[in-house]
Design goal:
The protein is of the alpha/beta class. It is built from ten helices and twelve strands.
Length: 316
């Protein structure tokens, strides 16, 4: 008989994802397709994202079929909302919910729903090599979210409590708006990270807007626009943007550690796949963990792992 596995599906605003965890909790497939964004645009409307997922899912489900030639699925997980909060909702997740139910129904498999943020945190925890016995803190930093949460372990792995966040733009939004302004292709994070790492001169002074564990990032867009008009230097502007975000997260980390001096910290979300930002936050820090890039950007791996944990817990 083929070994058992767990399937996870995530349909965020920019990536269609399907992942498979084996019975032992190892990710054996992490399949992803980006949603197409027209040149010069800075994102997608929800209606366009939902339509793009419906086009991507058949291709990914065919690839999933190939993976499942070696496994027997026994449960399916999907993300159905951005985060665990009242009123948290985005239509794009309906595509993943529909796909999960369509996949599970013929085999009468149980379906478990999780938030997109929970999936990010679990994927980061898995790929970072963290072995944390108790509660921890997590930064979820992406195009749609810039939050600091307290993660409390419980019987279904964890629950989260918001401790800090951006008061305006998200970090990923600032990066993508800056990149598109410079003529880069959306999403711009990977290319800007490479440009930032190539910059070797001195940066202009940076004054962030951080209070306690929250920040304001909207001013960064104006600063990078001005800097690019004056210099037309993509490396300089990329480094400035990433340094600004890194310093903001660093100060939020300082505020967190003032309240919880020894708390382990996991950095998750697409922005945290930046090598530049990771290097800044690792400096003289203990007890910090970073996801590998494939598990830091949007993915369904965390959802598959959460599905496994909930299934096993219900049967223990």
């Amino acid at each position: 008989m083929k070994p058992y596995c767990f399937v996870g599906i995530d349909t965020s605003n920019y990536t269609t994802s399907v992942a498979v965890s084996n019975y032992d909790g190892d990710i054996v497939a992490n399949l992803k397709l980006p949603l197409p964004v027209k040149e010069g645009e800075r994102g997608l409307r929800q209606s366009d994202a939902l339509f793009a997922h419906t086009k991507n899912l058949p291709d990914l489900m065919e690839k999933l079929t190939e993976v499942l030639k070696d496994y027997t699925p026994i449960a399916v997980g999907c993300s159905d909302k951005p985060r665990d909060a009242e009123g948290s909702y985005m239509p794009c997740f309906l595509a993943g919910v529909a796909a999960a139910h369509s996949f599970a129904a013929p085999m009468d498999l149980p379906i478990y729903r999780f938030s997109h943020q929970d999936g990010h945190i679990k994927a980061a925890y898995y790929s970072s090599g963290a072995d944390i016995g108790g509660d921890f803190a997590a930064f979820h930093v992406s195009g749609g979210t810039t939050e600091l949460v307290y993660v409390k372990k419980n019987d279904t792995f964890f629950s989260v409590e918001l401790m800090g966040e951006t008061n305006d733009l998200n970090a990923g939004q600032c990066i993508d708006r800056t990149g598109v302004m410079m003529g880069l292709k959306f999403p711009c994070g990977a290319e800007m990270d490479k440009l930032a790492l190539e910059f070797e001169a001195k940066l202009p002074p940076i004054k962030t807007a951080v209070k306690d564990m929250s920040c304001n990032l909207s001013g960064l867009e104006n600063l990078t626009q001005k800097l690019y008009r004056e210099t037309e230097d993509k490396r300089l502007v990329s480094a400035f943007a990433f340094e600004y975000i890194a310093k903001s997260l660093y100060k939020m980390t300082d505020a967190l550690r003032e309240k919880y001096p020894n708390i382990p910290i996991i950095y998750a979300g697409g922005v945290m796949s930046s090598v530049y930002i990771g290097e800044r936050l690792r400096y003289k820090r203990n007890g910090v963990y970073f996801a590998k890039p494939a598990f830091s950007a949007d993915n369904a791996a965390g959802v598959a792992l959460l599905c496994r944990e909930k299934y096993l817990k219900e049967r223990s």
